[in-house]
């Protein structure tokens, strides 16, 4: 049976992971390679790396990190942040990434989704959507790290992205992100039920129950979280034990 | 030398890293001559099948693959690599593949989310050395929208359920192929590479 995925997300800038990970007791806790190994050994299903600087130079640094860690970590890797062209995608995939996430560039030019899918296969192209609530049952898409309005309706954009060849959607609730009050399950469900591709829920995980809810009421196929893992609130296996006990299929 | 075929798409590095980690001499190459002189050959699978067939042909790699398979060089194909061994695929409106194994490649049913992305069980359909030391039903990582339907069940060594029951690992002669990505499947996947390479290089 296909299992639901738990995906730790590492925010990287200048070759270092940001957000606290002091609990890890690693000699160098901000080292993305060490952290990736740590989560691999813990049983994470996939890893996401987000380049939050998103410049040409930082993308090169990211490519180097992915190349190094893929020598040690034999699991799926998704890279996002500042990917704008087919050449950017190729650079990441050749470095060892399995999937690339595009956000602002896809909104600016949706054809990029199709071009990427034709070149590398749909399964490589993740469209990341940052959505902000705009009333009951309505969300709008923001770009440029959620600083700019796009005018797009989130559910309609999700549908279009899937039609254009996205193999997966990474949906972040701007309202919930960093709040630890739970994922926006209404948003995730609205999108998940209108697209044929898998959905990764992001933004808001604070408790084990939040992750269960993302799968149960949010209809997500995967749950992404950062701080609960980085700060050591929960280990990957604690999350999976809890989910299994609640009847969600997970890999253990 | 183990030739890892580079046809211009996607992530070859993980395959090369797995081969290196296990202590073997892998060479990423798009040269038919390298492929024909290799002790063993791996065809990694990323990209679209139609594109892959075109790329293989443009490098003369399709003939090289046919030749090494017929002379019995141990050959491992992964994901799209598995798909292109069959006769034809529905992908891209339909296209001819290499025709080395009877059967067709079809789109996964719309009753489930497609692509099939994530960790799923592989049930060992027929005993095979590729699964030595790997538990029946072990999890492997999948990421694909199409699946192969071999004409003969005799070629199926692993099966997986997703919308339907499909062949997730096949074998014929000295060729083995997996729909999942062993190089992305943690310890079980590395064990599978080890099983393949040990047999291919050391003959046991």
From TrEMBL, chain A:
It comes from the Bacteria. InterPro entries: Aldolase_TIM, His_biosynth, HisF, IGPS_HisA/HisF, RibuloseP-bd_barrel. The keyword Ubl conjugation does not apply. The keyword Transport does not apply. Its EC number is 4.3.2.10. One of its GO terms (biological process) is L-histidine biosynthetic process. Its main location: cytoplasm. It is found in: Cytoplasm. One of its GO terms (cellular component) is cytoplasm. One of its GO terms (molecular function) is lyase activity. It is an enzyme of class 4 (lyase). It catalyses: 5-[(5-phospho-1-deoxy-D-ribulos-1-ylimino)methylamino]-1-(5-phospho-beta-D-ribosyl)imidazole-4-carboxamide + L-glutamine = D-erythro-1-(imidazol-4-yl)glycerol 3-phosphate + 5-amino-1-(5-phospho-beta-D-ribosyl)imidazole-4-carboxamide + L-glutamate + H(+). The active site is at 11, 130. PANTHER family: IMIDAZOLE GLYCEROL PHOSPHATE SYNTHASE HISHF (PTHR21235:SF2), IMIDAZOLE GLYCEROL PHOSPHATE SYNTHASE SUBUNIT HISF/H IGP SYNTHASE SUBUNIT HISF/H (PTHR21235). Heterodimer of HisH and HisF. Belongs to the HisA/HisF family. IGPS catalyzes the conversion of PRFAR and glutamine to IGP, AICAR and glutamate. The HisF subunit catalyzes the cyclization activity that produces IGP and AICAR from PRFAR using the ammonia provided by the HisH subunit. This is Imidazole glycerol phosphate synthase subunit HisF.
From TrEMBL, chain B:
GO terms for cellular component: cytoplasm. GO terms for biological process: L-histidine biosynthetic process. Keywords: Amino-acid biosynthesis, Cytoplasm, Glutamine amidotransferase, Glycosyltransferase, Histidine biosynthesis, Hydrolase, Lyase, Transferase. It is found in: Cytoplasm. PANTHER family: IMIDAZOLE GLYCEROL PHOSPHATE SYNTHASE SUBUNIT HISH (PTHR42701:SF1). This is Imidazole glycerol phosphate synthase subunit HisH. Pathway: Amino-acid biosynthesis; L-histidine biosynthesis; L-histidine from 5-phospho-alpha-D-ribose 1-diphosphate: step 5/9. Heterodimer of HisH and HisF. The active site is at 79 (nucleophile), 181, 183. It catalyses: L-glutamine + H2O = L-glutamate + NH4(+); 5-[(5-phospho-1-deoxy-D-ribulos-1-ylimino)methylamino]-1-(5-phospho-beta-D-ribosyl)imidazole-4-carboxamide + L-glutamine = D-erythro-1-(imidazol-4-yl)glycerol 3-phosphate + 5-amino-1-(5-phospho-beta-D-ribosyl)imidazole-4-carboxamide + L-glutamate + H(+). IGPS catalyzes the conversion of PRFAR and glutamine to IGP, AICAR and glutamate. The HisH subunit catalyzes the hydrolysis of glutamine to glutamate and ammonia as part of the synthesis of IGP and AICAR. The resulting ammonia molecule is channeled to the active site of HisF. Transmembrane segments: none annotated. Its EC number is 4.3.2.10, 3.5.1.2. It holds the Pfam family GATase. Its main location: cytoplasm. Residues 4-198 form the Glutamine amidotransferase domain. The keyword Lyase applies. InterPro entries: Class_I_gatase-like (IPR029062), GATASE (IPR017926), Imidazole-glycPsynth_HisH (IPR010139). It comes from Dehalogenimonas alkenigignens. GO terms for molecular function: glutaminase activity; imidazoleglycerol-phosphate synthase activity; lyase activity. The keyword Cytoplasm applies.
